[in-house]
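User:
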Amino acid sequence: MYTILSAHADNWRLRLLAGAMILLIVAPAAADPWYEHYASAELALENQDWALAVQEINEALQRKGDSGARVRTYGMNVTSYFPYLRLGIAYYHLGQLDAASQAFDTEARLGAIENSESATQDLLRYRSLLEDAQVQVAATEQAHIREIVEQSLEEAQNLVAAGELVDAMSALDRALAVAPDDTDATSLMSQLRQRFAEQEDERQRERISAEAVAEGQGAIGVEPVAVRDLEAEVARARLATIEQLLAEAESDIDGGVPEDALSAANRVLSLDPGNEVALAQVARAYAMISEKLLGTQPTGNLPPAVRFVDLRRERDDGGLVETIRRPTFRLNGVVIDTSPVDVRFFDRADSPVTARISSQPLADFYITEFSMETDIAPGTSTFQLVATDSEGLSSSSEYTVVYIRPFFLAPWFYALLLLIAATAAAAPLWRRYRRRERLRKRKFNPYVAGAPVLEADMFYGRRELVDRILQTIHNNSLLIYGERRIGKTSIQHQLKKRLEQLDDPDYTFFPVYVDLQGTPEERFFQTIAEDVFLELTPLLEGLEPGFKDSAGYSYRNFVQDIRAILRLLQERASKHVKLVLLIDEVDELNAYDPRINQKLRSLFMKSFAESLVAVVSGVEIKKQWERQGSPWYNFFEEIEVQPFAPQEARELIEGPIARVFSLDDGVADRIISLTGGRPYLIQKLCIALITRLHEQQRKRISLADVDAVSSEAIR
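Assistant: Predicted structure:
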């Protein structure tokens, strides 16, 4: 079936495989280069192993992402390298036509294929085959859609004849889900909605009239005022029905039942044709039903493609090199992909190189422009570009440049550079001195007493405890308890920062800090939901919280919101999702109705519980929850926050003022003894000490200073 690869390609592939084997024996350190994977991909294409071909080409692209008609492989050997053409051929045979089209377009955009007549012919031929296949797929799909529409219309008309308007609308939904512009289906749906609205209003009038007669208010409709009252009651009943149906539709969509959601939303549109919420619900449900009825075509993701503004020239050994005669080197180009990409540059030592990046959509692609500018040393420099798409697929390319230093840069210039370097070496000492003087002048006092510690560089003494929590949080919820002002809130804030930065191989953590202090019982679940939506807003685009239009936010609303949030986060994450609720001042729960605790605990028993974990902190909560009757009995792994150990306390005392103020021998020990290692008292005493130094314009803390301020500072 694979007949397009030419005999010329066969010859170079044999040479490539042979050379690769020699290279593996002679230089093991250079094993697994791009051309080995490319040769394996060519062999897989010959054997019609299309999936293996995709895998091997992606491996090749990860090492070299730019195409070329003459690319050096090893030694003096060169070959043509058109990975996106080969990737498109593999995807075509796999039936993933959209991916094949993107691959062919990418190879064409890179431009290098224009330098190879045989590769250009391959591209034209497969594009023709692809167009024929797309036409056939489209025709098959249209026939299927027509069949669904006709069956749906027939069933709807039969139900209308039987007087079943709601069921008729449901039957018609299948047609509109796959063919929303079908005139017969849209016309019939409009008629059904109008008839349903008329029937519903008439039913409400009869109900209200009957209730009025039963209450002895006389016959409705005799006086003009009574008529107006009747219509007002009908209007209020309509609004109540609309609200109820909207809630049912939203719940059914979240529950994965689009048919029931459409039934409710259609009835809303019958009563209120322009209702925006119902129109949005219909669109979402139609999309879900369409996917069920028509399925989705398999797609494949392509690695990003790299195209340099290439000023290189081929050397005798087949390598491409750009020659410059100035120390500043600039490299421009674009990366082509179906989504924005992350582009990074590295030098030969694998050190990052700064570059300017900008991305913009163009048709079905994103074009990411890059511009790297850096100073280089005389001789040869090689820079590597690594581009990674939103799904983690990457490609890399190298660019080699030779800097030939101009003759006018004489040797004496290096002596001048040494002098400048010596000056630069002394500069940090001078800057350090100036920094100390500036800090003293503005009454520098880094300690914090009363407020939580938010900055990582001011967080001392709890690193081992935080590490222990991070090692446990994958599988267990935790309770942090301890006396007041012992640092529990600071630990919660530092946990949030660490989890946001954590590069875990299995999980992506989404920490949310929740402060329950002063939260009334009726706002408990809404408070947590508000903090979750506020923290994760950039990631929850399009998801509306349940409390937005609801006067009474219940536990059921909270569960629906959490389930929807976790589902959306998992769709956008490449790893398992773990939503971490960092709940502070959890002692508030002791004053709540016990059912609140039971409902909160049941949250961690839901089907999505593996993606949810909590770290709660409080003072008295451990005593309450140790009782066997508590819903939290044996639920949390408990960690007590104790006063600082001597070494931890010493770090808190000395670290914040290092290189600005100094301490006499014994000062740190005296502070630890007076405060019992409690961080709040340490900070409070240190604030008083630094204030005293500023007042007396001194730079060193003595034991006498400690004795002078301790009684007032830590009472």
